[in-house]
């Protein structure tokens, strides 16, 4: 997803630049697919860029803690390597039967993306069908609250392949791939310790508000999806170049390559998440995670303190609280939210004073105050100077040697008492002498 931060009052005039979704640990090259487009009896070949989420290997999707602990790769139902092929008329009929407000037409490009999801990406689809158990209730609740089409719940499949740790090479993060400025505009806090774009719940509600704002501009869901990818500014330019037409498929040739594939990929995602069984794809076996709840944190808290005292694993705490970037909850700055399994909530409440104090000096090393050391010369004087302090005004022709002999001290003592790094002195200045 690409976007630029905007002032919503100037939404139409100012382009968003949301980036295509990528995983934080690896920026992969953009892949493209060749499509033969038939129009009025003519054929032409076109190269369409794939959403980055369609280039991820299955192994990378399974790195998330929830996936590793609740999805059983050994029990993937009846998913097979055989993918039945169907005629265009079958795809047209199936798409028309999806109970949807959003228009989901069929053409060669949509067919190409369906073939990819049901072909080489079928194991990824099996994983994402299982991951839906974690995230779909969150998506559906927010979309329903804002009166948005529930078909939009499959948008994060295109954005992040349902990986909450997804991060693009230009900085978009989370399931919904918000850029930093746009996330802040929709209430997602980001600083050195917190990135709420990675919080599945907060980011989902922010994305619902953003999608609602886009629909208020275009009144067309395909244009909303396209704008979510490349930004309203780019869509507005395409509309102007197309002579004012506001149909996605009529401005198609004026859109960036990645946006040309974005809406077809979204339609294909809705198709495959509805008709996966028809293509011999089955969700991987998924265990339902333990129930969780949130508590308020009012002091700085490190995940290691929780792990040591409560016995909850660090990986689980990280997975349930992905918005905290450095395993630190900065409760001193303002009250923060911590999500834990239900069976650890009472443990935290009963032992919170012990938890906050445990290894605090070791884990929080930033000093609140610091003393400034004295200058080197002052420190020396305190150890070498003794007796009464006398001041000597330097006369023309005097050297440190002659002054030292006069007062019965050494040249080094004079240098130490006066912070001198060499024997050069100037007439008219005063020297400190302890006698």
UniProtKB/TrEMBL annotation:
Single GO MF annotation: peptidoglycan lytic transglycosylase activity
UniProt-recorded name of the protein: LysM peptidoglycan-binding domain-containing protein
Signal peptide extent: 1-29
Organism domain of life: Bacteria
A single BP term in Gene Ontology: peptidoglycan metabolic process
Organism of origin: Bacteroides intestinalis
One Gene Ontology CC term in the entry: membrane
UniProt cross-references to PROSITE patterns, sorted A to Z: LYSM, TRANSGLYCOSYLASE
Domain LysM: 390-433
Keywords for this protein: Signal
Classification lineage: Bacteria, Pseudomonadati, Bacteroidota, Bacteroidia, Bacteroidales
Matches recorded under CDD domains: LysM (cd00118), MltD-like (cd16894)
Family the entry assigns: Belongs to the transglycosylase Slt family.
